[in-house]
Amino acid sequence: MKLLSAAQIRALDQATIREQRTTSTALMERAAIALAGWLYQHYTPAEAGEILLLCGPGNNGGDGLALARLLYLAGYAVRLGLLPAAKYSDDYEYNHHVLPKVIAIQELSAEKLPDIQPGTLVVDALFGTGLSRPLDGVAAAVVRHLNGSHARVVAIDLPSGLLADAPQPDPQAPVVRASHTISFGLPKLAFLLPQNADYVGEWHVVDIGLSPDFIAQADTPWHLTRLPGTGGFDAALAARQPDVALPRRGKFAYKNTFGHALLLAGSRGKVGAAVLASGACLRGGVGLLTVAVPGCGYDIIQTTRPEAMCLPDTQADFISELPDLKPYQAVGIGPGLGQEEASRAVLEKLLREAKVPLVIDADALNLLGEHRELLALLPENTVLTPHIGEFTRLTEKARDDYHRLDLLRDFVQKHKCIVILKGAYTAVAAPDGQVYFNSTGNPGMGTGGSGDVLTGLVLALRADQRLDTVLAARLAVLAHGHAGDLAARETGEAGLVASDLVQHIGPALAVLVQ
Ligand SMILES: NC(=O)C1=CN([C@@H]2O[C@H](COP(=O)(O)OP(=O)(O)OC[C@H]3O[C@@H](n4cnc5c(N)ncnc54)[C@H](OP(=O)(O)O)[C@@H]3O)[C@@H](O)[C@H]2O)[C@@H](O)CC1
Ligand SMILES: Nc1ncnc2c1ncn2[C@@H]1O[C@H](COP(=O)(O)OP(=O)(O)O)[C@@H](O)[C@H]1O
Ligand SMILES: [K+]
């Protein structure tokens, strides 16, 4: 699904109103009904206690006023804190006008801040996508007061003070720290970046019937890849066109259909990385797998991965030889490789000689970072799988998460490669500058070897002749995260280890089959 900028979201609202021959007031009512529905599901009136809704002067505040009315009518105790302004939006004015008169209203000022107890349920309807400058004055005082209160905060559309698609121009200006953020129609880019995690809290999207045609035509580099059937919002769009799908294996398919992959991995003390990556490659559906390891890894691979063929290096402790590449449809290098000069030379030779898709990870990335002249040799459509530290070694230290996305798009466009920038919401960046964030996975995957598993899975899908590079990368990342989610159901997050991911790749891929 697409992620749109604040300007596009405003245009989307307008297009929806036009196409559906409705009014902005009616759209706001839909928004308020969707918000109320979410709150009903999450808090009974008793659990909620008295709900404080803080409203700004625009349509975000209008949403808050409409929500206050609906909550009151549904039996919740509500009170309002309203930000004074020179001008209010028309729909704010309307919803202010139709408020039940019994709802208590406090005009907010820096001298008279609202009573907020720890545990008060606060709805933040101060500002949404219309934020035009950093918060100051009364708004800043209210947000600082709220953030210091330990209240439960549900933000409407965006935590107030946060921009939907850009870094804060003034890092000193306050931003609401929400426990939950309820966004309309689509998530926002800001939700996916680690620097905003403390503000956004858990985010949710509610469907308010925004124009699917406008979304389909909107031009954006940002996308979120989801599992098929992940419903709720934009369900109509998702049903029409799943984000990604794995083609079914034909009845008469043979192992050659799925390719023969070569994996170069392991060094003394790190042969486990080769075991994990090769397991993932096999479970990823590769036709044949050959694993090149240092001599010390031969018995280990032959014992733990009987399905794979093994090429032991003449060196006992590290890889020093590049096998003949002719038999293979894809080559992966890096997990546990180490950074010996001989292994660097193997990497260079591979970059010079490979005629098939490459997947580069871990120490092979560190070698590229150390010897950046090798980047010029990257064959087109090579897949690189760095975490943020490895990516920094390949580029430069980013000022913030938005700057890192700029570096990422520049890098893939310059080197005509695919970068899988790993983390929560792993970003798959394509050579045309499109970025696909991933929606699966959990913090349990922050455990040694998870990345090696991803490399093996990407390699399997790159060897599969039916898939193009970007689709293979997106599918691998989606299935890897989903395998993590399936595994964590059994082990819990803390108990998750990388081998568990390998065990769950089969079922994770199965749900992606078209
Ligand atoms: N359109 C629709 O149909 C639907 C829209 N929806 C809702 O609308 C929201 C967007 O509404 P919006 O565009 O009115 O912007 P909003 O975020 O309320 O703020 C604008 C106001 O704040 C003011 N202001 C800005 N920055 C400020 C600052 N730092 N300090 C002080 N003031 C500041 C700004 O003043 P100005 O910049 O003009 O001086 C203006 O008065 C969106 O997030 C969603 O919740 C839903 O109902 C679905 C249907
Ligand atoms: N909080 C998280 N949410 C989702 N996925 C995560 C999270 N933390 C780590 N991961 C995933 O786990 C993998 C870790 O890879 P990496 O850092 O290379 O580990 P290692 O080097 O130990 O193999 C990546 O695919 C990453 O996206
Ligand atoms: K808000």
Largest sheet features? 10 strands, mixed
Q: Radius of gyration over alpha carbons?
A: 26 Å
CATH architecture of the largest domain: 3-Layer(aba) Sandwich
- Ligands, deduplicated: ligand NPW, adenosine-5'-diphosphate, potassium ion
Alpha-carbon distance between the termini? 18 Å
Tally of structural domains: 2
Q: Give the CATH level 1 class of the largest domain.
A: Alpha Beta
Strand count: 17
How many alpha or pi helices?
A: 18
Unreliable stretches covering 5 or more consecutive residues:
none
Binding site for (6S)-NADPHX: 59-63, 128-134, 157, 273, 336, 387, 452
Family: In the C-terminal section; belongs to the NnrD/CARKD family. Belongs to the NnrD/CARKD family.
Catalytic activity: (6R)-NADHX = (6S)-NADHX; (6R)-NADPHX = (6S)-NADPHX; (6S)-NADHX + ADP = AMP + phosphate + NADH + H(+); (6S)-NADPHX + ADP = AMP + phosphate + NADPH + H(+)
InterPro entries: Carbohydrate_kinase_pred_CS, CARKD, Nnr, Ribokinase-like, YjeF_N_dom, YjeF_N_dom_sf
Account of the 3D structure:
This protein has 514 residues and is α/β, with parallel strands linked by helices. The protein folds into two domains: 6-218, Rossmann fold, CATH 3.40.50.10260; 255-510, UDP-N-acetylmuramoyl-L-alanine:D-glutamate ligase. The protein has helices spanning 6-19, 24-42, 45-48, 59-73, 90-97, 137-147, 197-200, 212-217, 235-240, 271-283, 298-304, 341-353, 362-370, 388-394, 401-415, 450-463, 469-491, 498-510; strands spanning 51-55, 78-82, 104-107, 121-125, 152-156, 180-184, 202-206, 222-225, 260-264, 288-293, 309-312, 330-333, 358-360, 383-384, 418-421, 427-429, 435-438. A ten-stranded mixed sheet has the order 8-17-16-15-14-13-12-9-10-11, sandwiched between helices. The structure holds ligand NPW, adenosine-5'-diphosphate (ADP) and potassium ion. The site of adenosine-5'-diphosphate has 18 residues, from helix 16 and helix 17.
